[in-house]
Amino acid sequence: MPIQAGFAQIDITPPIGTRKIGWLKEIIGDSIADPLYARVAVFESSGQTLAFVQLDTLSIRWTQTNAIRQRLAAQHGYPGDHVMVAAVHNHAGPAIANCGDVQRDEGYIGALVEKVAAAFGEALDNCQDAQVGLGSGFEFDVAHNRRVVQRDGTVRTHGSFKDPNALYVEGPIDPEVGVLAARDAQGRLLGALVNYACHPAHHGGDTVFSGGYPGVLAAAMQAQGCPVALFLNGTAGNLHTSNPAAGGVDMSMEDAGRTLAKDAMGVIGEMEFRTELQLASLRRTVDLPCRKATEDEIHGTVRGAQRFVDSTIYDRTIPGLVERIRERRVQPAEVQVHFVDEYAFVSLPGECFVELGLDIKQRAHPRHAWIVACANGMVGYVPHKAAFERGGYETTFGANSRLAPAAGDLLVDCAQEAVASGPAFSR
C-alpha cells in the first residue's frame, strides 16, 4: 500500500493581555513579534498510523496531552495512543502551565485543544499519496553547552570564559539535525519534521510573544517550498544559543532559525525517498523518584546552588512543593516511540540533559533514534547524575527541578527498553 501523509498548521498566537510563561515571574504579553502555531503531521502505511502534534509553547502537561488525544479520538476517530504531542520549549509563549509566580491561563488552554483538533482534521483531509525521506546533517554553531565548570568544581549555568574562575564546559552538544520529509508524486514537498536540540529562549524575559527560532525555521522552510515544518526539540536541558566561549554572546533567533532551515533543506536535497514504510507506535510509563531535599537544598544554600530571576520565588513555592513530594514521592513519566522503518522518534516528558539523549541514541543502535523532549507531559529538568555533584541552575531544587539524581538513568533505561521492543526492520 502507498504511504499517505498529511500536514497542517493553525495560528495559536495568544491575545494581547495574556500571561506569558517567561522566566518564573509574572509577565503580561503586550505585543506580537511573530505568530505562534500548532503544527500537525499524520502518516499511514499498510494500515498502520502515527501522528505528531507540535506546539510553539514552553511545555505540554500530561492532562493537556490526554485532553488532545481524547478529542482527536472522539472527533476524528484517530487512535490517541498513536499521537505524540510535543512542545518546542518556547519561552516567549503563553502561560500553559504554572511556573514560579506564573499561573496557567485555563481559557487559553481550552482554546488550544480546540485549535489542535481543527488542525488535525485538516491534516487528515490533506492526506495524499506520498514518498518519505529520512536523513541527518550536523550543526555545530547554533547550540552550546551552557554549563561552565568553575575552578572550585561547581558549575555556573550561563557561565562565561571572560570570568577568570571559568575552567571548562561541562559537557557536549548534540549536533545532529534529523529530518523526515514527505513529497508528492511530482516531487513537491508536503511537509517535514526537523529534530535538533537547543533552548529557544529569545524574548523570554520581555513582554513580546514570539515563536522563537523554531518559528523562524518554519517560515524560512516555507519560503523555500516546504509548506509545513514541525520542529521537534531534542534533549536541550543544558543547551542554549548563547556561547560561553564568546563571553555569553547569544545568536539571534533569526540567525539560529535560518541556519537550521538551511541545514534541513540541505538534508532534504540529498535524501532518497521511499514509497513504502513500516510504521508502529508504543508507550511506556516509568515512575521517577522525587528528590528528598535537604534543608540546604530547600533554602538554596547547598554547594553550587544557582537560583535565577528572583530567589524569593523559590521561597514562596518550595514549601508547597515539599508537601506534594511527601504525598506523592514519585512522578509518573510517559516514554513514547514512533517507529518509521529503522528510525525511532523517542519522546521524553522533560527538559532532559543532552548526555541522556546521546546515551539513548547510542543504546538504540542499530536503530537510528531521534529524541523529542518536552513531549507528552513535563516533569521539569532531568539532569544526568554527575551534574548534581556540581550544582548549577538546572539541579537547584525547586518546582522545575524536583527529581532525584537517579531519574535520568531510569528514563534512559525505559527509553532503551521501548526502542528494543519495536518491530524488526530490514534496512
Put the structure in a nutshell:
The chain has a domain at 3-278 and 364-373. Helices cover 26% and strands 29% of the residues.
Question: Could you outline the blueprint of secondary structure elements for this entry?
Answer:
Blueprint: E1 3-11, E2 31-32, E3 37-45, E4 48-55, H1 62-76, E5 83-87, H2 106-125, E6 128-138, E7 144-145, E8 147-150, E9 155-157, E10 166-169, E11 176-183, E12 189-196, E13 208-209, H3 212-223, E14 229-233, E15 239-240, E16 242-243, E17 249-250, H4 253-269, E18 273-274, E19 279-289, H5 295-298, H6 311-328, E20 330-340, E21 343-347, E22 351-352, H7 354-364, E23 368-372, E24 381-382, H8 407-420
Helix pairs in contact: 1-2, 3-4, 7-8
Give an overview of the whole structure.
By secondary structure, the chain is an alpha+beta fold. The protein contains 8 helices and 24 strands. It has a domain at 3-278 and 364-373. The strands form 7 sheets. Strands 1, 3, 4, 5, 6, 11, 12, 14 and 18 form a 9-stranded mixed β-sheet that branches. A hairpin with a 2-residue loop joins strand 20 and strand 21 (343-347).
